[in-house]
Amino acid sequence: MAALRAQSDYATPLTFTTLAGQAGVAGFNDGTGVNAQFSGPRGVTVDSSGNLYVADSQNYAIRKITSAGVVTLLAGIPEALTPPNSISLSPGPPVDGTGSAAHFDQPSGIVADSAGNLYVTDGSGTIRMVTAAGVVTTLAGGPLTGTGSPGQDGIGAAAEFDNPLGIAIDAGGNLYVADSGNDTIRKVSPNGNVTTLAGLATKFGNTDGTGSTARFSNPTGVAVDASGNVFVADSGNFVVRKITPAGLVSTFAGTAGVLGSADGTGSAAQFDALNGIAIDANGNLYVADANNTIRKITSAGVVTTLAGAPNVTGSSNGTGASALFSNPYGVAVNASGDLFVTETGNDTLRESYAAANTAPTISTQPTGQSVALYSSVTFSVAAAGVPVPSYQWLFNGSAVGGATNPTLTIDEVQAANLGTYSVLVTNSSGSATSNSVTLSSPGVTPGPPPGSPASSFANISTRAVVGTGAALEIAGFAISGPPGSTAQLLVRGDGLSLMGFQVADYLAEPVLTIFDSAGTQVATISSWGTNPDPAQVAETALSVGAFLDVSPTLGEWDSALLIRLAPGAYTAQISGTGGTTGLALAEIYQVGSGPTQLVNISTRASVGVGASVEIAGLVIGGSQPTRVLIRAVGPTLANFSVSGVLALPSLTVFDSSGNPVATNTGWSTNSNAAMIATEAAAVGAFALPAASADCALLLTLQPGSYTAQVSGVGGTTGIALVEAYLAP
Predict the structure, then answer these.
(1) Rounded to whole angstroms, how far apart are CA atoms 625 and 622?
(2) Nearest to residue 579, comparing CAs of 458, 695, 467?
(3) Which residues contact residue 412 at a Cβ distance below 8 angstroms, ignoring those fewer than 6 apart?
(4) Is 116 exposed, middle or buried (0-12, 13-18, 19+ CB in 10 A)?
(5) DSSP annotation of 311
(6) Mapping DSSP to helix (H, G, I), strand (E, B) and coil, where does residue 201 land?
(7) DSSP letter at 549?
C-alpha cells in the first residue's frame, strides 16, 4: 500500500478512482477491477494486511478484495441477484457455516479485528463473526420474537437488535453497534454480552446526555478512537455525535434537524442523512454523506468536503468536486491514510490514495518454463503503482480472456498453450509491459493438438418441459480427448432457480441422472446440497459463470453433480420427483482446461408454446471463430419409435444480445443444404431425409454465448431433438 503522508491542509480535495466493480452494473461476479460485480455494497473494512472486505448486501455475501483489486467470495451465498445471475428470494434465518454454506440476510456493517476476524451486522438482527477462512458463527442477537423488551440486553441470542447497521471495534475487542431500529448504540463484549451504551430503545430524538437520557434518530455508522470515544453518524438528525467511554453523549458536528452541505466548525457545519463513518490514526473522521459527498472532520470538529458535488449524482473518477458518487455508503481508512468508499447506487468500490499517483513499475518479472504436456504451470509478476494497477496477460501478443490477476495458471498444458507470455500492467498514471517469456515442452511443436479445433464448447444447456415417460428431458453430450484423459464437468438440472427468470411453471424437484453410451447409470442426484462437498459445487458454479442454484434448505431443490468423465458419449436425464412435471434447464459446463473438449450437445424434450418452447444454449470458448452445425429434428424422430413428434419445427439462433443470427424451417431449403448433409455425416449425426420438415443451420460463430430456439410452426407442439455439433 502507499506510504503515509501527513495531511496538514484539511481542505485539500482527494482524487478518487474505481478499485472494483463497474458503475451501473449490479450483479455477482468474482474478478479483478471492472470484471468484478457487486449488488448494493454497504460496509467496508480493511485488515492489517491491506485486504478489504465488503458487506455485499443484496448479494447476501461477504467479499474480499486484495490491494490489486481482485475480488473473491469469502462467505455467504448470493440469492438476490437480478437475472440472469440468480434469483430473488428472502433467505430466511441466518445459517452458520463455512464459505457459501453460510447464509446472511442483507449484511450491512463490517469491521476487522487485529487477528483478521470480521464482525458483521446482519439484517436478521444478529452480529456475525467470520474468520479469515470464511467460517461464520453468530456472536449475538437473533430473529425478533416479540416476547422480550425491545432492544433488550443479554448474552448471545438473549439480546435483541432491530436493523443493526454500522459496527466498530476498540483495542480491547469490544464491538459498538448502531442499532438503528432501536435508536441506540450497543456495546458487545468479546464473549457476546450485549449492553446499551447510550440511547433508549424505541425513543428517538436529539437530546445530549448520559446513557439512556440521550436520544438518537436512525444511527447508521459508528467509529471508535484510540481513547475509546465512540463517534456516531446520527443520520436522522443530520449530525455526528460523540460518546465518551462513560456514556456521555454530545453533538460533535452539525446541528440537529438542519440539513445542508455547508462546511464549517462544529454546529456551523451541515450534513444530509449520513451513512458510514471511519476514523484514521490521527483522529480524523471520514463520513459518507447521502448528498453524494465525502466529508472530513478533524479532531477539532472542522468539517470539509473532500470529494463529490452536493446533490449531484454520477460515477466519474476525478479530484474534489469532479469525482461524482451515487449514494456513498461505507467508508474505511487504512494505516497509510488511503480511503475506501462503497457506493450502493453505482455498485462499486472507490479508492483515494494518500500518496501521489505513480505509474506501475514491475519488480519481479515472469520467468520462462519448460514442462511436460498435461502438467500444470504458473506464471507470476510483481508490480507496484498508485493507484494499485490492474493486470492483463498476453499470449503471443494477444490478450488472454479472464487472465487479469498477478498470476496466470494453466492447469493442463497442451501444445496449443506453448508460446510466449507477457503481462500488461496498467493504472490511471501509465502502464508497463513485462518481459516476454516462453512456455515450451520437450520435443513438442507449439500449436493445436491434431484434430483439435481452435474453439470449443465451454458450456451447453437446454431449457424444456419435463414430462413423464418418453417426455422426460434427455440431454446428450459428447467428450473428445486422448486415451486416459478425463474432463471435469459441472452437470445441473435446474428447476426452482428458473423462477428468477420469470418462469412460473418450473419443475420443483428435478432428479438428474447421468448414463454412459451403454445405458449404464453413472451417477444420480436429487438435490445439489446432498453432494459430499456442496460448497465446492457452489464455488465451481461461480467460477464457470453459472448462476447460483437455490440453497437446499429451502425445501425445493435443484440438482447438480461435479463429476469427472472419460471421453465418450453420455446422456443427462431430468425427471420430476414422484412424476412431477414442469420446465427445467439442463446444463453441462467444462471446468478448467485440458486435452478434453465438449464437442456435441443434443436434447430431446417436449416443445410447447410461449415459455415452453425448447431453448438450447451454447457458449463457444477459445479465440477463433468456429463452424457449428445446429439441428432441430421433429418428424424424423418417428423413425426412432418416438411418438408425438413435433411435425413442423422452426429453428432460430440468437446471439447474447437477443439478435437473431439465422433461422430455418425445412433444412433442405438452405442454399448450403448439400454441405449441411456432408458435415452431418462427418460429425456422426444421423441423416435427415431430403425435403423433410426437420431444420438445420451450418454457421460460423465467433466465441461467445448463443441460444437455439425450437418452436412449432403455427403454435404446434410435440417432441423435438435439438443438436449442436462442432463442425470439422
Answers:
(1) 8
(2) 467
(3) 374, 375, 376, 592, 593, 594, 595
(4) middle
(5) T
(6) coil
(7) P
**Which pLDDT score, from 0 to 100, does residue 145 have?**
57
DSSP of 267-278: GG--B-SEEEEE
Q: Give the SS3 label for residue 35.
A: helix
What confidence score (pLDDT) does residue 604 get? 67
How far is 250 from 243, CA to CA, in rounded Å? 7
Distance CA 350, CA 343 (A): 8
Q: Rounded to whole angstroms, how far apart are CA atoms 312 and 687?
A: 64
Q: Is the pLDDT of residue 100 over 90?
A: no
Distance CA 270, CA 548 (A): 44
Mean pLDDT value across the chain:
84
d(CA 393, CA 38): 24
Q: What is the largest CA-CA distance in the chain?
A: 91
**Per-residue confidence band for 252, with pLDDT thresholds at 50, 70 and 90:** very high
Q: Which strands, in side-by-side order, build the sheet including 31-32?
A: 31-32, 70-76, 61-65, 52-56, 41-46
Whether the CB-CB separation of 366 and 332 falls below 8 Å is answered with no
Give 208-220 as a 3 state SS string.
CEEHHHCCECCEE
Cα→Cα distances 324→23, 35, 57, 317, 591, Å: 11, 21, 22, 7, 40
Distance CA 484, CA 179 (A): 60
Distances (CA, A) of 479 to 557, 573, 648: 28, 17, 31
Decide if pLDDT at 473 tops 70: no
What residue type is 422 in one-letter code? S
Between the alpha carbon of residue 136 and those of residues 62, 75, 174, the distances in Å are 10, 7, 18
The reply to whether omega before 728 is within 30° of 0 (cis) is no
Cell 449441411: give the residue.
676
pLDDT score for 494: 82
Cα–Cα distances in Å, from 84 out to 54, 207, 387? 23, 48, 32
Distance between CA 144 and CA 238 in Å, rounded? Answer: 28
**Bridge partner list, 477:** 570, 601
- Asked if residue 554 has pLDDT above 60, the reply is no
Residue appearing with cell numbers 493442463: 412
| Cβ atoms of 141 and 164 closer than 8 Å | yes
Which residue carries 493504472 as its cell? 427
- All 3 cell numbers of residue 33? 477491477
Dihedral over Cα of 673, 679, 681, 684: its sign:
negative
CB 109 within 8 A of CB 167: yes
Number of neighbours of residue 335 by Cβ within 10 angstroms: 12
Tell the residue number behind the cell numbers 498477478, with chain if given. Answer: 406
* C-alpha–C-alpha distance, residues 317 and 309, integer Å: 12
Candidates 20, 18, 26; CA nearest to 345 is 26
Handedness of CA 635, 636, 637, 639 (dihedral sign): positive
The model's confidence at residue 449, banded by pLDDT at 50, 70 and 90, is very low
pLDDT at 316: 93
Compute the residue count for the chain: 728
Buried b / exposed e over 241-254, threshold 16 CB at 10 Å, is bbbeeebbbebbbb
- Predicted local distance difference test score (pLDDT) of residue 450: 37
Peptide bond into 595 cis (omega under 30): no
Could you tell me the sign of the dihedral formed by the alpha carbons of 391, 392, 393, 397, in that order?
negative
| Cβ partners under 8 Å of residue 406, min gap 6 | 68, 380, 381, 382, 383, 391
For the chain, percent helix, then strand, then coil, each to nearest 5? 10, 45, 45
DSSP character for 448?
P
Specify the 3-state DSSP secondary structure of 396: coil
Residues paired with 652 in a beta bridge: 663, 709
Return the number of other C-beta atoms located less than 10 Å from residue 435's C-beta.
14
Question: Of the candidates 80, 45, 77, which has an alpha carbon nearest to the alpha carbon of residue 64?
Answer: 45
Taking only the tens place, the pLDDT of each residue in 698-723 is: 988 888 888 888 899 988 998 888 88
Query: Pick from 313, 316, 303, 240: which is nearest to 276 by CA?
Result: 240
Neighbour tally for 613: CB within 10 Å? 19
Q: 560 vs 455, which has greater pLDDT? A: 560
